[in-house]
Amino acid sequence: MKKILLGNEAIVKAALAAGVQFVSGYPGCPSAEIGDIIGKVAKENGIYAEWSTNEKTGLEAGIGASFSGLKVLVNMKSFGINVCSDSLFPLAYTGTKGAMVIFVGDDPGCHSSAQSEQDSRGYAYLGKIPVLEPSDPQECYDFTMLGFEISEKFNVPVILRATTRVAHQRSPVNFGERKPGIRPIGEFIKNPRQFSTMPPRTMEMKNELLEKLEKVRQFAEKSKANKVSKRKNKTGIIASGISYLHVLEALETMGLDLPVLKLSFFYPFPKKIVANFIKDKKSILVAEELDPYLEKEITALAKDTNLKLNIFGKNVLPGTGELNSEKICVALSKITGKKFVNNKSPALNLPKRSARLCDGCPYWYIFPVLKRVAPDAIFGGDIGCNMIAGLPPHNMHDTLFSMGASLGISHGIKKSTNQKVISMMGDGTFFHSGIPALVNAVYNRSNPLVVVLDNRITAMTGHQVNPGMGKTLMGDIVEEVKIEDIAKACGVKNIKVLDPINAQDFEMAIKEFLVKDEVSIIICKRICALLARRQKNG
Fold first, then answer.
1. Labelling 261: which of 9, 192, 294, 448 has CA 20 to 30 A away?
2. Which residues, 6 or more positions from 429, have their beta carbon under 8 angstroms from its beta carbon?
3. Is the sign of the CA dihedral 512, 513, 515, 516 positive or negative?
4. CA 312 distance to own-chain centroid
């Protein structure tokens, strides 16, 4: 079949065609559509799917399913791989039993992942895990299929790394269908030598992993996923991911006919293919987002292959932000000497507009009251819709790091100063990683005021369910996990649940709790305005 698909939609189609049986993960841009789409079709296709409480629990659920013989897809955004890395590294050592593909969505340019411009490819080296990089939706489909093939063949997890431009790009995709089936029952066969990482077995596992990686490397050398153009020229280009498409457009724009090597296998690095490509070249441009990983590999390889090779990379391309064809053209102009004339229309001098809260958002009732009642307080921001409090007209956040960090950092400030501190986080973030921070603050006798903005949904990433809603990704009705019950179980004595539209109640609670010598928590419970409208309109 052929259809115009998003990159993320193509990944779902491939997972279905590959026979995926278990899907887990945590929503985040640019990966959220994968779980959303799978959730809608899981039951009819005999698949188990879940939004896990965070990426670590999501990966661990996938590991358990893999150890039980099932085919597994785990999906997350770039920061999610940081959260799950404690279990990711041992997984490389144990390997998989059922095949496993881990999708990681990076965000060059920080369009949505504003806290850092992370290049998750580095985890290939840290964890010694094969990484594939698609350029477009068709490759999203093909490489997902390839990932399952590699994982099944070599019993290793495979990371599929895409960026926002790939995950959210649309183009025609050829794909196969999956026949609906009944959810399979796996079987975990006890084998401590395979599934338990304890010395001295751990060191044996590492040696076994290195042997597997060499076999994967040999597989990569022969794979058609790596493409080499047959053009003859002493100047060549090596590109990966979305950079490959920018390179093709730049060559057309400048009227250049240069040989291009597209590396789809990022790790393990296919040395022979690269060595054959660079051995007769005078100059090479390496185009990749973001960090110069391939550039360093090629530079090291050139010492044994072509000592006179001039390697251009981050010395002619920016080290921050997304690449595009114009930036490639500028780099090629410097390398080839051919003049590049930018005929694009001049940028319009339009007024800049920052992100803002939606009309009717319950946060409109929260931020002004906090600022009015506690103008001198230090405000700890967190990930989610409350991030917008850091922008005009609110201008509130004094810290903003990662999921759950608002409370973790607030505790440190309270233990170091006599200042008033208010930590803000959403309901999804509370379940994701706010609970350990709350336990830590209570246990160490801290006293920040915690304001949980419970809008009844994980809103910013597209209205995904969380444990506080009483509903799973697959639509099953379950018992609602109440934030106030968890806070009480953690030892918090000062707890208030209220509707923030009642400004007087909210103001009184802030004044009462802000002077307490122990942790206090206010749960502002009011449904997301967009969700309320959708529910009303059916």
1. 9
2. 382, 383, 384, 403, 404
3. positive
4. 29
Query: The domain at 227-336 falls in which architecture?
Result: 3-Layer(aba) Sandwich (3.40)
Please state, as a whole number, how many other Cβ atoms lie within 10 Å of the Cβ of residue 402.
Answer: 18
Whose CA is closest to 457, among 384, 370, 364, 406? 384
Instruction: Express each pLDDT in 373-414 by its tens digit.
Output: 999 999 999 988 888 889 899 999 999 898 889 999 999 999
The pairing of beta strand 48-49 with beta strand 2-6: unpaired
Rounded-to-integer distance, Cα 495 and Cα 518, Å: 11
- Give the H/E segment covering residue 379: strand 378-381
CATH number of 2-222: 3.40.50.970
- Domain boundary assignment for the chain: 2-222, 227-336, 363-536
CATH level 2 (architecture), domain 363-536: 3-Layer(aba) Sandwich (3.40)
Q: Which two tokens stand for residue 341?
A: 């004339």
Q: To 5 degrees, how large is the angle CA 243–CA 120–CA 238?
A: 30
- Name which of 128, 146, 135 is nearest 224 in CA terms: 146
**Burial of residue 89 (number of CB atoms within 10 Å: 0-12, 13-18, 19+):** middle
Burial 141-157 (b: 16+ CB within 10 A, else e): bbbbbbbbbbbbebbbb
* 374 contacts 420 by C-beta, under 8 angstroms: yes
Q: Which residues contact 244 (CB under 8 A, 6 or more apart)?
A: 135, 260, 262, 287
Say if CB 447 and CB 518 are below 8 A apart.
yes
To 10 degrees, the CA torsion angle through 451, 455, 457, 463?
-120
Contact 158, 150 (CB under 8 A): yes
Task: Print burial letters for 197-236: b (CB count within 10 Å at least 16), e (below 16).
Answer: eeeeeeeebeeebeebbeebbebbbebebbebbeeebebb
What are the respective helix, strand and coil percentages of the chain, to the nearest 5? Answer: 40, 15, 40
- pLDDT (tens digit, 9 = 90+) per residue, 331-389? 999 999 888 877 766 677 877 777 889 999 999 999 999 999 999 999 999 988 888 88
Contact 274, 263 (CB under 8 A): yes
What SS3 state is found at 461?
coil
What CA–CA distances, in Å, run from 11 to 7, 96, 241, 332?
6, 20, 15, 33
Sheet of 494-498: strand order equals 399-400, 378-381, 421-426, 449-454, 520-525, 494-498
pLDDT tens for 20-76 read 999 999 998 899 999 999 999 999 999 999 999 999 999 999 999 999 999 999 999
The closest alpha carbon to 6, from 27, 26, 36, belongs to: 36
Q: What is the pLDDT of residues 65-115, one digit of tens each?
A: 999 999 999 999 999 999 999 999 999 999 999 999 999 999 888 877 667
